[in-house]
Write a structure and sequence with these properties.
The chain is built from 2 helices and no strands. The protein is mostly helical. It has a domain of 71 residues. The protein is rod-shaped and about 125 Å long.
């Protein structure tokens, strides 16, 4: 017959003993762990909220910068188009026959 010492040499018996120990200690350990982990969880939630708000601010600022950039590019494009239209020779339809040049330039 196996002795009590031989019983704990088996891995299965060790696992059962550890499980019984955990179940026996859980009414004492769980409230202590819960009490200690609550402030940590609250702090993590608070910092997560702060990071979320900062992220929203950052993305809003990036959106404003991109909108400003797009508006500047659009304004430069319109200005360049207006300058090109002012510098271009008049179209043949708007020139009277007495003012018509000898050769008609290509509109490109």
């Amino acid at each position: 017959m196996a002795s009590f010492k031989d019983l704990f040499k088996s891995d299965v018996a060790k696992g059962v003993a550890i499980g019984i120990g955990i179940v026996a200690l859980s009414p004492v350990v769980v409230p202590v762990v819960a009490k200690l982990s609550r402030p940590t969880a609250r702090a993590a939630a608070r910092y997560g909220n702060v990071l979320y708000d900062k992220g929203l601010e950052t993305f809003a600022e990036m959106g404003e910068i991109l909108e400003d950039f797009a508006a500047e590019v659009r304004a430069e494009f319109v200005q360049a188009r207006q300058q090109a239209a002012e510098a271009a020779p008049p179209s043949p339809a708007s020139v009277s026959p007495t003012q018509a040049p000898a050769t008609i330039p290509d509109p490109d």
